[in-house]
Amino acid sequence: MSSQLSHNKDQPRIRKSLSDSSPTSSTATTKSLRHERLSRLSSSGSSDVSNDTTTNHAESYFSRRENRLSARKKAEEESANNDYKKMYEKALATNQRLKSRLETSKQELVMIQEQLQRAQQKGRKGECGSNMLETEKKESWSLKKKISDMEEQVKVKADLKMENQRLKDENGALIRVITKLSK
User: Fold this and answer.
1) How many folded domains does the chain comprise?
2) Residues whose CB is less than 8 angstroms from the CB of residue 11 and which lie 6 or more positions away in sequence, other chains included
3) pLDDT, tens digit (0-9, with 9 covering 90-100), for 23-76
4) d(C-alpha 183, C-alpha 181), whole Å
5) Domain extent for 77
6) What is the pTM (predicted TM-score) of this model?
7) Residue 103 burial (10 A CB sphere; 0-12, 13-18, 19+)
8) Which residue among 46, 123, 172, 173 sits deepest, i.e. has the most Cβ atoms within 10 Å of its Cβ?
C-alpha cells in the first residue's frame, strides 16, 4: 500500500513535468520518461490483465503524445520556413523599393549637377560680361578723353591758324612799309 501511495505521489510530478516539457524536447528524453513510467506501472503490483491494459493505454498515450509532438514540431518548422520565406520576400521587396528610390535620387542628383554647371557657366558669362562692360567703359572713357583732347587741339590749331594768318597779314604790311621807305 505504501508503494502505491508513493507511486501515486510520484505520478502527478511526472505528469506535471511531462506537461511542462517543451514540444521541442528530444525523442530520447520522451522515450526514457515513457520507459520509467512503464517500469513504475509494471512494478506497482497490479494484476497482469490490468498491467497489460495500463501498458496499452500508456503506450497509446505516449504514441499519441509523440505524434502530437512531431506534428507540432513539423508545424513549427513549416511556420519557421514560412516565416523565413516571408522575411525573405519582405526583405526582397524592401531592397527593390530602396533600389528604385536610389535610382530616382541618382537621377535627381544628375539633374541638379547639370543645373549647377549651367548656373556656373552663366555666372562666368556674367563675370566676363561685367569684365567686358568694365573694359568697354574704360575704352569709352579713354576714347572720350581722346576726343576731348583732339577737340582742344583743333581749337588750338584754329587759334594758331588765325594767329598765323594775322602774322602773315602783319608781315605783308611791314614788307609794304619797308618797300615804301626804301624807294
Assistant:
1) 1
2) 40
3) 444 555 666 666 666 666 555 544 444 555 666 777 888 888 888 888 888 888
4) 6
5) 2-86
6) 0.31
7) exposed
8) 46
